[in-house]
Specification:
Elements lengths: L1 H30 L4 H10 L2 H20 L2 H14 L2 H19 L9 E3 L1 H14 L5 H6 L7 H11 L5 E3 H6 L2 H39 L1 H36 L9 H39 L3
Antiparallel strand pairs: 1-2
Helix pairs in contact: 1-10, 1-11, 1-12, 2-5, 3-4, 3-5, 4-6, 6-8, 10-11, 11-12
Amino acid sequence: MKGLKLFALIVIFLVLISVGWAYQGGLSANRTIFEQDYYEQMLAETNLSTSIHEHLQETILEEMSEEMPDHMAAVVTRVLLMVFTEEWFEEQTIIITDDFVRYVTGEQQSIKAVIDLREEKEELSAKLEMALTVIPEQLLRMLGFDPAELYLLAESLVEQMPLPDRLPVEQLLMEQEAGRDLLNLLSLTRQFCSVYRYLTAAAFILGLLLLYFITGPFDALKWFGAAAMLSGASFYLALQGWNVILPGMLELGLISSDLLETAAFYNIFEYSVPLIAIVPFYYALFGLAVLAVGIVFGKLLPR
């Protein structure tokens, strides 16, 4: 009987540690990816916008070079990045992530963000017309354009670009496999957010009640407090472990991103770790307090 009782206590103890991880994960998400101010502050502290901008420069130049002579491709790429600056990407990122957060947390029922490109298209056409003056006239004539009417070439180039006046973010994501995966992830996260607090609370209450019936009130507090303390400590150690091994994994290519450089990816993680680390610290402190209450009252009060 004692062996069965000990086995039950160990199982409950391990379950409470696991539930504690889930609870801390939710609290960590609330302090980071589910917090609207997190993205604005993160962009200010890291070089994410620069990394995205540099990646787009390489991608755009490569795609443009397939459609037109290299000299013209370089001019068009440079103008595009003059219009769609790092600051512009930061603004759009904040708008989109704010919309994602509202959707995931249940504040709105769908993704509503729309990128308005009308002003950028007008600016792009005007700057292209000015930039195209550096293209040799002979090349322009070979392409069928009159060097005296560069505005026609500029308008033609803008029309060929996949730049609608207004671009719904959800529609943009649906057109790409990675985007569809992101939408599915956001949907699953939304479902998780709607129930995780209730599930973790129910698991804590059930675990505490089972401990109470098996060991009594004070020993139940000891077991519960020890589980919370160990859960917080192990979560913190795992977080620090990732902080140590992540650079090596990025260098080896075990974790990669088509959009971010490894340095930018690590900078985001490095920025987020201190925000998350406070969660297991307080959770372990809470466990220690519960454990101390169980020990003190177990000695002072009759069983």
